[in-house]
Every structure is written in C-alpha cells, then in structure tokens.
Amino acid sequence: MVDRMMRALRGDVALYEEAESNPSLTQEAYTIVAIVAVINVVVGLLYGLFSGDIGAALLGAIFSGVSVFVGYLIWSYLTWIIGTRVFNGTADVGELQRTLGYSMTPQILSGLLGFIPVLGACLGIIPALWSLYLGVVAVRQALDFDTGKALMTAGAAFVVQFIIFALIGTVLGVGAAGLGALTGGS
How far apart are CA 39 and CA 108, in angstroms? Predict the structure, then answer.
C-alpha cells in the first residue's frame, strides 16, 4: 500500500490506471481516505482541547472526520455524473472512488502539518493543491478522456461540492447559534 501511495504522490499515471481497473484496490483507497479522516479528527480534537471547550472539541473532531468521508463520496459521485453525462467519459463510480482515494494521499501531510500552530495552516495549502492536481489526474484516467475535460469535470464538481458544504455549514451554524441562544450559551 505504501508503495502505491508513493506512486500516487508522484502522479504516476500507471498507478491511477491500475487503481481504475483493479477493484481489489477499493479497500486500499478507502483506507487512505480513513487515514486522512483520522488525522483530521485528531487535529480537530487537539485544537478544540487547547481552546478549552471539550464539547466543541468533540463536535469539531467528529464533524471533521465525517466531512472527509462525505466530501470524498460527494466528489466521487459528482465527478462520475459530470464526467459521464456531460463529457461522455467512461467509468463507473468504483473506478472514480479508487482513483480519487489515491489522489487524497497528500492530505495526510496536510493533516500532519495542522499540528504546527499558524504555520501549519499556511503550509497545509501545498498538499491540498497537490491533492487537487492528483484529483485531476485521477479523473482523467478513470473517465478515459483528455486533461481539459478532466479539469472541467473536477472544477465543476468542486464548485458543486463547495456549494453543498457551504449550505450545510450555514444550516449547522444557524442551528448551533439558535441552540446557543435557547440554552443561554454564547
């Protein structure tokens, strides 16, 4: 698994082709997503604990971990729908889940950098952009089309996913504010 993750980091097209065509790598791709989620949970928990609010720490940590998985699933399905319906790519959802799972490998580093106060947030953008680049490679290989279509597919999926998460965040934020007002919290 580590060897394939290193190949994924390098943007090795052969690795993404292998992930696309080999269903036995599905569990490995899910494991990478799980590692990213666990690191995000730990970082979120630590930040929350340092702020002194255990309840907020637990809620933030759980939300962080769940958002990694939900984001990954939304990303997979959106790229599949857009790529196959709009740009006539050829893939099934499993192929996209495998390739996109491997493209999340740099986010492990992003999560680990999160342990560094202030500097970690600034440096964390590098692995995030790296992962986005690898996501385009993953989409291109899974959907069997050119880089231009992969960029448009990934870009459209990113915008839709951003809107979905913004709406969820708004609803949860308003709900949390209302609950705080009802319970006398600040």
Answer: 7
